[in-house]
User: Which sequence fits this backbone?
């Protein structure tokens, strides 16, 4: 491809596209990735974007108008392209992809049915082993409550002892004495009887509560008839817990017993909510919703397709069936179904119900998605005002059409020592911490903020230009739409001088302070612009300013901490790197080491009496030689 993106001739590059499967990446004005897609034939798919605008959604038309260049990666198969597409979307979060905003992990309940005396455990993931898994559940707390109930009901062991090999080797643990384990480790229950309890657990987790409820009622009545009221109350409480769990499983699909996920969504403006119902063995065990970046005019099939790919790329469990609100996109359907089947290890069926009970459940999921969206609409609107809206308010103050990415810088030092610089990044009003950068000053000595800023800005943008020439994509190659300096005219001129020498044109604004060092306005193009101190834009400026200060100060503090440890302990004869590390691990900081007596110092692994006495004597001499102010710096 051409070395300079300005030389990229889209029509010429379209002619060079291969007819192979692969992934394509669209780049915007600042060479950022704005869209990632996959294709059975790169040649046919990519060309479609630049042909007649007929049948294209407004979103696609906006995206195409911003494409400055594209690149592609050829794969051996469509399935391989699908996996690569999911990975690249997650890595780059392109602006025009329908993005799954929530990255959630779901817990499972694991029953080790392959063991002679099985256990019931909490599991963060579903592995391909011989255990039986139930879930995924939408709440870790609900899983822990269920496990607690199971142990009280069925007295299943929780220990890691190997049974029957270790039967009788150790005494029963506390769980046996509080009535939550049947103590197979002491042979107090046979393997056959224990297995019956495990089978009851599996019935319970499968949603079959009738048997256990009848059994608890019978036990409660028998205890009451025998005037054992405390025992009867115990069974009453257990029965109430079981009813509570059963009550949560209100939706029962009596005609189907397979596992399935039901997926539907609702959208308004640029926000959307995807709702997923989890049906396991015919019963709804939970539901969850996900924020998505999707607009009302987006094609429903495209939204559903994008969600299915991103969601099932990140979750370890794929059910036997998916019931969807809209069909998968025709050109991707076969590849996605094949990919899902490979992940599951057996055939996965994807349906779009049109009538009957199946359609009712999909409609119910869509209704729930709409309710979540309406409930969160005001919150989302306010959040957008404080972030993206605030960023555009700042842009309007200084006469820019729009601003998406802002960078701010700060210098931190104490009396000119250990000077450091920080770079913080905000995109659409939100901090993008993955793009933050730290600078340890190399060339500037002493207390000179202007010179320090010159070094930091020069290194930052020279690095960005160098990386751009090598076609690398990182936080340095993505230049900001606006640079915000903490000071006024002086700092703005420093930044403009650096950018001018490097041939870079980026707007720079400064923050003008009042007599109390509070921001009162913005300095831009040689004039002060007053701002509303009660506005969202003002609060955003304050957040950017505070974040730059915090990041610089934390970096400086960490360097001072490392320097203080090195400057003190490394000066003590006989204390090398291993002993220094052992002392810091044992005492935590220099002050604690100073306060320790020789016995405590000698007890540290790697230390001996002689080295302990040396350390003790060193700090006593320092106390006599150093001034209090110097001691406090440690």
Assistant:
């Amino acid at each position: 491809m051409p070395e300079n993106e300005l030389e990229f001739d889209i029509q010429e590059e379209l002619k060079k596209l291969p007819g192979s499967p692969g992934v394509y990446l669209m780049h915007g004005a600042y060479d950022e990735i704005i869209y990632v897609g996959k294709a059975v034939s790169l040649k046919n798919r990519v060309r479609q974007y630049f042909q007649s605008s007929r049948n294209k959604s407004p979103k696609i038309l906006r995206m195409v108008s911003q494409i400055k260049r594209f690149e592609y990666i050829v794969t051996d198969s469509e399935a391989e392209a699908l996996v690569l597409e999911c990975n690249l979307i997650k890595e780059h979060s392109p602006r025009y992809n329908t993005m799954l905003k929530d990255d959630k992990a779901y817990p499972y309940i694991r029953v080790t049915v392959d063991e002679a005396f099985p256990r019931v455990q909490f599991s963060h993931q579903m592995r391909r082993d011989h255990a039986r898994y139930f879930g995924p559940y939408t709440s870790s707390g609900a899983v822990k409550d269920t496990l607690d109930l199971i142990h009280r009901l069925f007295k299943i062991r929780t220990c890691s002892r190997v049974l029957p090999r270790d039967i009788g080797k150790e005494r029963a643990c506390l769980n046996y004495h509080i009535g939550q384990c049947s103590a197979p480790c002491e042979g107090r229950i046979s393997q056959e009887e224990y297995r019956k309890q495990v089978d009851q657990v599996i019935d319970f987790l499968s949603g079959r509560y009738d048997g256990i409820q009848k059994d608890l009622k019978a036990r409660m009545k028998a205890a009451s008839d025998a005037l054992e009221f405390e025992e009867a109350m115990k069974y009453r409480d257990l029965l109430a817990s079981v009813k509570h769990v059963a009550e949560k499983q209100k939706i029962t699909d009596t005609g189907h017993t397979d596992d399935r996920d039901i997926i539907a969504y609702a959208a308004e403006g640029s926000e959307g909510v995807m709702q997923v119902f989890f049906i396991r063995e015919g019963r709804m065990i939970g539901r969850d919703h996900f924020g998505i970046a999707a607009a009302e005019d987006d094609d429903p099939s495209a939204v559903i397709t994008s969600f299915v790919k991103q969601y099932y790329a990140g979750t370890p469990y794929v059910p036997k069936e998916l019931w969807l609100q809209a069909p998968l996109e025709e050109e991707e359907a076969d590849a996605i179904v094949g990919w899902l089947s490979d992940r599951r290890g057996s055939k996965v069926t994807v349906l779009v119900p049109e009538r009957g009970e199946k359609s009712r459940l999909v409609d119910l999921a869509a209704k729930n998605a709409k309710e979540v969206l309406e409930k969160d609409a005001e919150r989302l609107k306010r959040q957008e005002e404080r972030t993206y809206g605030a960023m555009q308010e700042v842009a309007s103050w200084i006469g820019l059409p729009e601003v998406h990415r802002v960078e701010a810088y700060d210098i931190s030092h104490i009396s000119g020592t250990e000077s450091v610089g920080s770079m913080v990044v905000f995109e659409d009003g939100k901090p993008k911490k993955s793009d933050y950068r730290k600078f340890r000053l190399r060339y500037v000595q002493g207390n000179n903020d202007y010179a320090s800023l010159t070094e930091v800005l020069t290194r930052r943008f020279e690095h960005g230009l160098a990386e751009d020439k090598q076609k690398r994509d990182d936080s340095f190659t993505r230049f900001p739409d606006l640079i915000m300096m903490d000071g006024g005219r002086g700092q703005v001129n420093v930044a403009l001088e650096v950018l001018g020498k490097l041939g870079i044109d980026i707007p720079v604004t400064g923050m003008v302070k009042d007599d109390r060092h509070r921001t009162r306005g913005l300095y831009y193009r040689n004039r002060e612009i007053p701002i509303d101190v009660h506005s969202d834009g003002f609060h955003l400026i304050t957040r950017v300013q505070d974040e730059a200060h915090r990041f610089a100060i934390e970096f400086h503090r960490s360097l001072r901490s490392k320097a203080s440890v090195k400057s003190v302990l490394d000066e003590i004869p006989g204390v090398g790197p291993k002993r220094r590390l052992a002392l810091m691990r044992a005492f935590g900081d220099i002050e604690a080491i100073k306060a320790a007596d020789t016995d405590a110092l000698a007890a540290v692994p790697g230390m001996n009496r002689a080295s302990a006495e040396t350390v003790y004597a060193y700090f006593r001499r320092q106390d006599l030689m150093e001034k209090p102010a110097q001691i406090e710096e440690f």
Remarks:
- The chain has a mean pLDDT of 82.
